[in-house]
Amino acid sequence: MDPLSTAMKVAASGLDAQSERLRVVSENMANAQSTGRVPGSDPYRRKTITFTAEVDRASGGAMVKVSNIGKDPGAFPVEFDPGNEAADADGYVKMPNVNMLVEMADMREANRSYEADLQVIKQARNLISMTIDLLRSGS
Amino acid sequence: MQPVNLFNLAAQQARWLSVRQSVIAGNVANVNTPGYVARDVEPFEAVLDDRHVSMKTTAPGHMSGNNTLVQDVSLREDDENPAILPSGNTVSLQTELVKSADVQRQFNINTAIVKAFHNMMSMATKE
């Protein structure tokens, strides 16, 4: 397989992985205040995402794949809010273990990696069109 | 008359550059993969010096093995990146983008030279 198309394919796998990561981050941020329904029940648990490198057999390129979307085992912070439907007998509610700052940092990083992948695709396209331009010079 | 070797050489370098671009793409795609070690291709001089042993085709069904381009240029671990993250990942995004810009520049020179020689040849063949 042509190495330049391999480059685009590999970078596209990076785009896929990073957008999956953005999805997980947005789920976490959207559910940062989602408590349970029943008194004393657990709230939303933060999701984590991990990537793994996988060699594409046809082309030999190192593609990236989402290996696992897991749950963050961290402890839930507790807030005093007797009016909440998830409050236990003493009026305490378990809140999701989502830290907004961590999610923001994660989002920025995903953004940056996505941009880098896009840049690589652009460059590969440029190389291809430079090669095609060789045919045009004859006129 | 000596056959013009330039087009062959230029094609080889173009192929080497595109393999390098695909390796860079792999590094950039795996910038957030734990334990991933950045890779790079061997320098172009090494590719030129290397006398490849190609497989012999003894039956019509055999493939020559020469069209698997990425395997043709051997890869090595990139040891120029001193920073290793706690996750074991050694990819530095800046370095990769600089390398990618470098590939683009060299490719530009390559195609410009080929274009110039092509023009010369068509000048010679016209009229």
Please provide a brief summary of the model.
The complex is a heterodimer of chains A (about 140) and B (about 130). Chain A has about 140 residues and is α+β, with helices and mostly antiparallel strands.
Give a written overview of the molecule.
The complex is a heterodimer of chains A (139) and B (127). Chain A has helices spanning 3-30, 100-136, and strands spanning 47-55, 62-71, 78-80, 92-94. By secondary structure, chain A is of the alpha+beta class. In chain A, the strands form two sheets. Chain A has a two-stranded antiparallel sheet with strand order 1-2. In chain A, strands 3-4 form a two-stranded antiparallel ribbon. In chain A, a hairpin with a 6-residue loop joins strand 1 (47-55) and strand 2 (62-71). Chain B is mainly α and 127 residues long. Helix content of chain B is 53%, strand content 5%. A two-stranded antiparallel ribbon of chain B has the order 1-2. The longest helix of chain B is centred in the C-terminal third of the chain and has 33 residues, at 93-125. Chain B is extended and about 65 Å long. The chains are: A alpha+beta (139), B mainly alpha (127). Chains A and B meet through helix 1, strand 1, strand 2 and helix 2 of A and helix 1, helix 3 and helix 4 of B.
